[in-house]
Design goal:
Family: Belongs to the RimM family.
Subcellular location: Cytoplasm
Number of helices: 3
Shape: elongated
Oligomer: single chain
GO cellular component, one term: ribosome
Radius of gyration: 22 Å
Pfam families: PRC_RimM (PF24986), RimM (PF01782)
Protein name: Ribosome maturation factor RimM
Number of strands: 12
Length: 186
């Protein structure tokens, strides 16, 4: 199974280093020295990680054979793909690979069916689960413990406890009302 683990950004310096937008919770394993990565577009790779370091909060990698800024800049926008055994699981029991989650049945705490998990959306500060309901509409569910307390891979289901209105907007609770327009003072 192939997983996207990063995206190459701008060249850094003149020796072939590139910044990398990390898309894995295990960068030291997937993007460490010696790692061989497939690429999208395929014509850019495969790439072998020669060295890596963190600079100003960004991961910088150098790939074998990429020796100057021009070669590094030519890789900009390339996706880095790692080959992963489909049975492999992250070390942390609270983490999951996207392919393990896609296709799970999504149910409420009481067992009421909600729909099917169709995609995991990775945002900078939080992941969202895309759930396709029986009527074909989609709902984005924040992937946080308070709302998704249970992922049961054995039974192929995700249990959610959404706040009112997340799944069905008609059930949203109105917290306050709009205040009246202020009177004009002289």
């Amino acid at each position: 199974m192939q997983l996207v683990v990063g995206r190459i950004g701008r060249a850094h310096g003149i020796r072939g280093d590139v910044s990398v937008e990390v898309r894995t919770d295990e960068p030291e394993l997937r993007l460490g020295p010696g790692a061989v990565l497939l690429t999208d577009p395929a014509s850019a790779g495969p790439l072998t990680v020669e060295s890596g370091r963190v600079h100003s909060g960004r991961l910088l990698l150098r790939f074998a054979g990429v020796k100057d800024r021009n070669a590094a800049e030519a890789l900009r926008g390339t996706l880095l793909i790692s080959e992963v055994d489909p049975e492999e699981r992250p070390e942390d029991p609270e983490e999951y690979y996207d392919h393990q989650l896609i296709g799970l049945d999504v149910v409420l705490l009481d067992g009421t069916p909600v729909g099917e998990l169709t995609e995991v959306v990775h945002l900078p500060y939080q992941d969202l689960l895309t759930v396709r309901k029986a009527d074909g509409t989609e709902v984005l569910v924040p992937f946080v413990t308070q709302i998704v307390p249970t992922i049961d891979l054995e039974n192929q289901r995700a249990v959610i406890t959404p706040p009112a209105g997340l799944i069905d907007p008609d059930q949203a609770e109105v917290v306050g009302t709009a205040s009246e327009e202020p009177e004009e003072s002289e």
